[in-house]
Amino acid sequence: MTDKEKLIADIVDIVMEQLADRAVTAENADFSGDFGGQEELRDLTSRECRAVPLLDHPRDPEALKRMMGLTTARIGVGSAGARLKTRTLLTLRADHATARDAVMMDVDPEVLKALDLFTVQTLCRDKNQFLTRPDLGRRLSDEAAETVRDRCVTAPDVQLIVADGLSSTAVNANIADVLPMMTDGLRAAGVRVGTAFFVRFARVAVEDQIAELVGAKVVCIFVGERPGLGTAESMSAYLAYNARVGMAEARRTVVSNIHRDGITAVEAGAYLADLAVKLLEKKASGVELQKQGD
């Protein structure tokens, strides 16, 4: 046997030993905390499944679990040769599908009904136009503007708006907790709160037109943020003092990452109420607020 043939034979022996070890491990494994083996199918995107490290033989398993508990980033996934493991690839594809659904689906009407929010629409005709023409998502249609004038309280201290943005999933997951919490906090502080409503096919800057229509001192719009492969449930709140159409983006104050693995909705609602009161007191928002030391 030549040296080359001996090398190949040694490599084959090592691979066969590794495969035999994995077969024994799989045969004796307890799948109750893993993905269920052949008896039960689990949701690969669930928190329980994501918490299971896929890295073979980690040097410090407990440290790896702690790290995985602190981030939605894909760490500890291991590999199959030079490629991703099957479960990792399937989870990536599932997360991508979830992100696409978040963009393309509409906010659940039952969520809006439970919060007693009426609906208006921007100049966008449909979802495709909303995605390809951001400028149209920044303006209400004439009919919508008239509805806002007729149904909303005029000259409120704070006007609250809910918008789908780029993730209806985020709105569905968070708005039922954050909106009532913020509203209650503002009223407890003696702030006059406007009539909240929902805007379909909306971009952030539509709040500027709405602020002008109702004469609000402070406006706050909740928007579903562009989903990623970490989460599709992230929502943000954009606040502005004395907002006007065409104003600089630097005049907005933003609270982002409102979701269960970031700032929880209830916590965000309480914080936003305090923040809106601060904007009223300082008569400023965005960079202008920061210049005042806040």
Order of helices and strands: HHHHHEHHEHEHEEEHH
N-end to C-end Cα span: 78 Å
Oligomer: single chain
Low confidence ranges:
24-39
Number of strands: 6
Helix content: 40-55%
Please tell me about this protein's structure:
With 294 residues, the protein is of the alpha/beta class. Mean pLDDT is 88; it is low at 24-39. 33% of the residues are buried. β2 (158-163), α8 and β3 form a beta-alpha-beta unit. It has helices spanning 3-28, 47-50, 61-68, 86-104, 109-114, 127-132, 142-151, 168-188, 206-214, 265-282, 287-291; strands at residues 119-121, 158-163, 197-200, 218-224, 235-241, 252-258. The protein is built from eleven helices and six strands.
Provide a compact summary of the structure.
By secondary structure, this protein is α/β, with parallel strands linked by helices. It has helices at residues 3-28, 47-50, 61-68, 86-104, 109-114, 127-132, 142-151, 168-188, 206-214, 265-282, 287-291; strands spanning 119-121, 158-163, 197-200, 218-224, 235-241, 252-258. A 6-stranded mixed sheet has the order 1-3-2-4-5-6, sandwiched between helices.
Write out key terms for the chains shown.
six-stranded mixed beta sheet, 45% helix, single chain, 294 residues, elongated, alpha/beta, 11 helices
